[in-house]
Specification:
CATH topology: Lysozyme
Largest sheet: 2 strands, antiparallel
Radius of gyration: 15 Å
Distance between the termini: 18 Å
CATH class: Mainly Alpha
């Protein structure tokens, strides 16, 4: 017997612990500020806000900042996606938004498809975001494949 599962109103969703762990695993910890490869100064678990060259951060502080950043990106998902979601879809969308930014996420085909109730198509569209600086990156291909699987509940 399959359990009765229904999507949840987006306003009530928040990033799950599994979603945050996924983000921090993909972002990986870097204690010193670095250039992310496309000119953005980054630190910790992919934090870009108020980061200057030469900055340093502890793992603990980086986790606090990652959670705050993830919550902001989750709010962007709530602002832009107007349809109910499963928790795992919300987590996948938040991970994508965390990595590509709120504006890019909100303007994305992922959002357009989700809002048209094409949930499967939205999950597939996640894989389109595999480039940085115009080049396909192996790490992004892997991350997007994992986010798609998460989005599909696998």
């Amino acid at each position: 017997m399959t359990p009765n599962r229904s999507r949840t109103r987006i306003a009530t969703l928040a990033l799950s612990a599994a979603g945050l762990v996924g983000i921090t695993q993909w972002e990986a910890f870097r204690p010193s500020a670095y250039n992310d490869g496309v000119g953005v100064t980054t630190i910790g678990f992919g934090t870009t806000t108020d980061v200057k060259p030469g900055d340093k951060i502890t793992v603990e502080r980086a986790l606090v900042r990652a959670l705050a950043d993830a919550e902001k990106h989750g709010e962007a998902v709530k602002r832009c996606v107007k349809v109910p979601l499963f928790q795992y879809e919300f987590d996948a969308y938040t991970s994508l938004a965390y990595n590509i930014g709120q504006t890019a996420f909100c303007k994305s085909t992922v959002v357009k498809l989700a809002n048209a109730y094409d949930y499967a198509g939205a999950c597939v569209a996640i894989e389109r975001f595999n480039k940085a600086g115009g080049k396909v990156l192996k790490g992004l291909v892997k991350r997007r494949a994992a986010e798609r699987k998460m989005c599909e509940g696998k």
